[in-house]
Amino acid sequence: MKKYLIVIERTDIGYSSYSPDLPGCVSTGKSREEAEQNMREAIEFHVDGLRQKGYPVPEPQASSSYVELPI
Questions:
Q1: What's the distance, Cα to Cα, between the start and end of the chain in Å?
Q2: Is residue 14 part of a domain?
Q3: Can you give the residue range of the structural domain that contains 37?
Q4: Which of 37, 59, 62, 68 is within CB 3.0–4.6 Å of 20 for a Cys-Cys bond?
Q5: How far apart are CA 62 and CA 18, in angstroms?
Q6: What is the CATH number of the domain that holds 27?
Q7: Phi and psi for 17 in degrees, rounded to 5?
Q8: pTM value?
């Protein structure tokens, strides 16, 4: 099992999401939860397409952290 980082951002009309490790793999949703679920499905579809075409599936490499500032 592989774990891909996804970034979820609030927009004016809902949420958008993408994975830094899978360029071009993006999704949206009306709620954060919907965006996350849609992105899970988008990643599965994206990886399946790569495999069907014989392309390598990128290994997860992205990570994240928060920086706390006293402002």
A1: 39
A2: yes
A3: 7-52
A4: 62
A5: 12
A6: 3.30.160.250
A7: -145, 155
A8: 0.88
